[in-house]
Amino acid sequence: MLGAEQDIIAEYVQxxxxxxxxAPILDHADRSVQAHQAxxxxxxxxxFWPLHDIFFEELGDLARxxxxxxxxxxxxRLPLDHERFNACVDEQRYVELVxxxxxxxxxxxxxxxxxIAVNDQVVVxxxxxxxxxxxxxxxVGGQN
Length: 144
Description:
single chain; 7 helices; 6% strand
């Protein structure tokens, strides 16, 4: 999904035409919870998407070893106040938030990753950017 996601952000989100909301799917037990709450910790410093991208590009690393240590090592590559980030991860500041987001996702029936809603149109599974462009352009006046 990183390809279409990045294009959607570049084409529509950065210009302020579209709001892109990410909701976690916690399907790998505690490891999912830890990774998603770490992304929220990064969001405190404006680094949600960069950490999200690192996690998705290096997904296999999140399945091995001491996950909190792996998360902190990956976050070292970002311009963060690392002491603040590490404290956030250690105190599990966003665990309740990501669990509540996952419960909302389940309640509305989202079971597949990725699932993207463009207003009332739901797109399930990985799709090329052109699919999203066809849905979004009419909503933003076809400016792109």
